Amino acid sequence: MKKSIFYHAGCPVCLSAEHDIIELIGAQNVEIVHFGEDKSRIAEAEKAGVKSVPAMVTPNGNVLHINFGASMSEVKA
Amino acid sequence: MKKSIFYHAGCPVCLSAEHDIIELIGAQNVEIVHFGEDKSRIAEAEKAGVKSVPAMVTPNGNVLHINFGASMSEVKA
User: Fold this and answer.
1) Min CA distance, A25 vs chain B (Å)?
2) Which of A46, A72, B37, B74 is 20 to 30 A from B67 via CA?
């Protein structure tokens, strides 16, 4: 199975969701991207349709916005 | 593993998310509850912290609101 990508920005909501997602789908099935550590991935996430974090892009390209931590404009600020 | 519970109300956003969740975590790991078919589950979902659908309650009781289909007040209307 192609991996999902979970994007987050280190906020408490993000970390809680990250923990849940890893529990549910398994760490081996998801790549975790922290924008605070890698701002170069922001453009790719926006292109995939990510509007806020935490969000997960599934292997088939759907975006699941999970709860609400921060908007992408806050992430870029 | 205890099952997650995925609550939805049949809206297009709900059905898309349902499909993704089943792909990701497996149909055997999640109970699907459709409020349109079973309104008696609404109170239980609200008690668990569900504010909008689609939403998933994880085995440890966390609520993941996934994208946004409808508020619980719309579901009850």
Assistant:
1) 5
2) B37
Q: Residue B36, SS3?
A: coil
Evaluate whether B7 touches B33 at the Cβ level (below 8 Å): yes
Q: Side chain identity at A67, as an amino acid letter?
A: N
A64 → closest Cβ in B58, B63, B67: B67
Q: Is B66's CB within 8 Å of A62's CB?
A: no
pLDDT in tens, chain A (77 residues): 689 999 999 999 999 999 999 999 999 999 999 999 999 999 999 999 999 999 999 999 999 999 999 999 999 98
Query: What's the whole-model pTM score?
Result: 0.93
Nearest to A62 among B20, B59, B63 (CB): B20
CA nearest to B13, candidates A28, A30, A64, A14: A64
Q: What is the ipTM of this complex?
A: 0.90
